[in-house]
From TrEMBL:
Entries under SUPFAM superfamilies matching the protein: ATPase domain of HSP90 chaperone/DNA topoisomerase II/histidine kinase (SSF55874), GAF domain-like (SSF55781), Homodimeric domain of signal transducing histidine kinase (SSF47384), PYP-like sensor domain (PAS domain) (SSF55785)
Swiss-Prot/TrEMBL catalytic activity: ATP + protein L-histidine = ADP + protein N-phospho-L-histidine
Domain of life: Bacteria
Organism of derivation: Aquimarina celericrescens
Matches recorded under NCBIfam families: sensory_box
InterPro entries: GAF, GAF-like_dom_sf, HATPase_C_sf, HATPase_dom, His_kinase_dom, HisK_dim/P_dom, HisK_dim/P_sf, PAS
CDD domains linked: HATPase, HisKA, PAS
Taxonomic classification: Bacteria, Pseudomonadati, Bacteroidota, Flavobacteriia, Flavobacteriales
Name of the molecule in the record: histidine kinase
Keywords: ATP-binding, Coiled coil, Kinase, Nucleotide-binding, Phosphoprotein, Transferase, Two-component regulatory system
SMART domains: GAF, HATPase_c, HisKA, PAS
Domain PAS: 12-82
Length: 721
């Protein structure tokens, strides 16, 4: 029996070793102290290490600092009753320093009274990339649906391309249909000389891959420019810009017409991956939508301008003809002195009537933005004309002689309503009302037409398109609403300002009265206490006035950047020293940085205001003995600053309004403040091309995240150079 048990153990061990060695999923084994004792080949490949190089190393070598905290907490927990912990997503670190997203499962077992952790790891980086890409695509599509400017949209597209297609510079060119040339829309990373070469390229196949892609209406992928005839006239320029590969794609409209080209340039001789092709295909489609929408908008504006001019000319011609007719009638009346003249007048009148009929028909046919209709008392259309018939595609559906009931383009409810209005008009009423049809609003006026034949009643209906006027009315209402909100904001400002000034002034007044009563030498300490109180309240008043002054400058657009180079670490340490007198008892402010020196090019005055405001808030809203930390990290193009406190936090339902002017959270009503600080901070950061966000939990504290550019923009850099 013991021999059989031993055989089973050996057999199970061989099976485990086989699974451990050949599994495509990463498997590693570690002790409860986090020391790696075994790692299968899949783990070595996943993190870029040679076989056996991970043995004896700590888990910190393959997981980020934040992820290792989560993992160690998991390993230290007492989980005697749990054998497997499922699906923990963490951030892994490869040997070359790059990061990957991983999902792991942990199995807990015991050996010789020691806990052993078997960790199964799967690489989910591609899945995460697809999630991030979908978010970027949705943001670009939102810009298109909001009719943002073409420059903003294509800039966002090129930024997204360069984010997901590594080691590449992107370019979007728009086709000028009239002259058949391409011109630059967005090429953020290409040199000025390179952009000038691309500007005005004719779409013929021999020049470059851009013109060839537009001419052939297909993608042109050049993996090694030195071996291709394309770009032969620009080899020196490509060499100067370290470009060895060019991938060009035609941007097509919904009718498959060429709108432009999308091209990526790389210094590496390589081919596109399937994921990269999908990214380019999606962003190329969005570029086509944006350019086509922009072209439609331009065409619409031109048509509106032409139509307005045509309407004006028509009005002038109608007036001119009417004046001529009136002059002719007047002359005929003056010469009507005998019967022969009367006959001549009659004939002339008949001629005028015919001309008036022709003129009426001409006016009706060209009646701008409307329709003229004559209907008899049998509800039959006797006359109908107007330009709106073509716009609404009704000319072939409504014609002379048709009954109202036989107009199939109208619903039964609309037909009933029209006949009801016509009957009122036949009875002698003049109606004026509005109606809607195919997303257009029309002003309708009806008038009864009287004749000698009482059995043949007629009604004149004039429809005039007032959609543009309705839109103007909506804009006026929106403007009125904005003005009402502004008045509310002014009221809040007056109330806040009066409160913020009254409280410190009352404290100053009471302190000065008490000082007068404390002239004795033995009461020096009390006088100093009241003097400190006066200084503190004066400082608060200065802070309030500074907030109002900053708000005024921002609103009037008088604030401009005064950027310069300085060391951010020393700058922050100096600022912390200045904040020392403001700290409560036991409070500490600690700065966390990996490098002792970080040079930035920013406006130091604005940055000082931003950091001092956030630190003041952290001190003001945190209790005694609280810890406040400033973390500064340097990335490739950005500086990240995090300010974390242990204060009262921000209520969840009010977090969306925290950057609004004069906003104070419910839990901060009794704490001194203007409600302007965070609004001004956000405006200053955006003025420096940065971003700010936060994370807060009530009664636990708040962390603000600031991102600022590390280096000046290209045009600023040129000025500095």
């Amino acid at each position: 029996m013991e021999f059989n048990d031993m055989e089973n153990v050996i057999q199970h061990k061989k099976i485990f070793q086989s699974i451990f060695r050949f599994s495509s999923e990463g498997i590693l084994i570690c002790s409860e102290t986090g020391i790696i004792t075994a790692a299968n080949p899949a783990i070595d490949k996943m993190f870029g290490y040679n076989s056996g190089k991970l043995i004896g190393r700590k888990l910190e070598i393959i997981f980020s600092q934040k992820s290792i905290k989560k993992l160690k907490l998991l390993l230290k927990n007492d989980i005697n009753n749990v054998s497997m912990v499922q699906d923990q997503a963490l951030l892994g670190l490869k040997k070359d320093g790059s990061q990957i997203f991983v999902k792991l499962k942990v199995r807990v077992s015991k050996h010789c009274n020691n806990q052993i952790f078997t960790i199964f790891i799967a690489n989910i980086t591609n899945h995460k990339k697809e999630e991030f890409l979908k978010k970027h695509l949705r943001k670009i599509l939102k810009l298109i649906t909001q009719h943002q400017s073409l420059d903003i949209i294509v800039k966002r597209i090129t930024e997204t391309l360069e984010l997901y297609i590594l080691d590449c510079k992107s370019s979007i060119l728009k086709l000028d249909q009239e002259v058949g040339t391409l011109y630059n829309l967005s090429s953020p990373k290409l040199s000025y000389d390179f952009q000038q070469v691309l500007e005005g390229i004719t779409i013929i196949p021999e020049i470059c891959s851009c013109s060839c892609a537009a001419h052939e209406k297909k993608e042109i992928l050049v993996s090694d420019i030195t071996k291709e005839p394309l770009w032969k006239n620009h080899k020196a320029l490509l060499s100067e810009n370290n470009v060895n590969t060019a991938w060009s794609f035609p941007i097509l409209s919904s009718t498959q017409e060429v709108l432009g080209t999308l091209t990526l340039y790389s210094h590496k001789n390589r081919k596109l991956t399937e994921f990269e092709k999908e990214v380019i295909e999606d962003l190329n489609l969005l570029a086509g939508m944006a350019i086509e929408q922009n072209n439609i908008h331009i065409t619409l504006l031109q048509n509106q301008k032409e139509l307005k001019g045509y309407n004006q000319r028509l009005k002038e011609e109608v007036k001119e003809h009417t004046d001529e007719l009136m002059t002719t009638v007047q002359k005929l009346v003056e010469t009507n002195i005998n019967l022969e003249d009367q006959i001549q007048v009659t004939k002339a009148a008949e001629t005028i009537a015919q001309e008036n009929q022709v003129m009426f028909s001409a006016i009706a046919e060209n009646f701008p933005n409307g329709i003229i209709v004559v209907v008899n008392n049998t509800f039959r259309v006797e006359y109908i004309e107007g330009q709106e018939l073509d716009k609404l595609a009704l000319r072939d559906l409504i014609h002379r002689g048709i009954l109202i009931d036989n107009i199939h383009a109208f619903s039964e409810a609309r037909k009933t309503r029209i006949k009801k209005d016509l009957q009122k008009t036949f009875d002698g009423e003049h109606l004026a009302f509005e109606t809607e049809y195919k997303n257009n609003t029309y002003a309708v006026n009806t008038t009864p037409l009287f004749s000698n034949n009482v059995n043949n009643k007629q009604a004149l209906l004039v429809y005039y398109n007032i959609s543009q006027r309705k839109l103007a009315e909506q804009k006026i209402l929106q403007t009125l609403e904005k003005e009402q909100k502004l008045n509310e904001l002014k009221s809040r400002f007056i109330s806040l300002a009066s409160h913020e000034f009254r409280t410190p002034l009352s404290a100053i007044l009471s302190s000065t009265n008490l000082i007068k009563k404390l002239n004795a030498t033995r009461k020096v300490q009390k006088r100093e206490k009241y003097l400190f109180k006066i200084k503190s309240n004066v400082k608060n008043l200065v802070s309030v006035l500074n907030d109002f002054l900053s708000l005024s400058k921002l609103e009037e657009g008088k604030l401009s950047l005064q950027s310069k180079y300085f060391d951010l670490i020393q700058f922050s340490k100096s600022l912390i020293e200045e904040m020392e007198p403001n700290k409560k008892e036991g409070q500490t402010i600690k700065i966390i940085n990996k490098t002792p020196f970080i040079e930035v090019y920013l406006d130091s005055k604005l940055l000082r205001h931003v950091l001092s405001n956030l630190l003041s808030n952290a001190i003001k809203y945190s209790p005694v003995n609280a810890k406040i930390t400033i973390s500064i990290t340097q990335e490739e193009k950005w500086i990240s600053v995090q300010i974390k406190d242990q204060g009262i936090g921000i209520p969840v339902e009010e977090q969306k309004d925290i950057f609004q002017r004069f906003f104070r959270a419910k839990n901060a009503i009794n704490i001194q403040g203007t409600g302007l600080g965070l609004y001004i901070v956000k405006q200053y950061i955006e003025l420096m091309d940065g971003t700010i966000s936060f994370k807060s939990n009530p009664k636990e504290g708040t962390t603000f995240f600031i991102k600022l550019p590390l280096k000046p923009k290209q045009n600023e850099k040129n000025l500095i150079d």
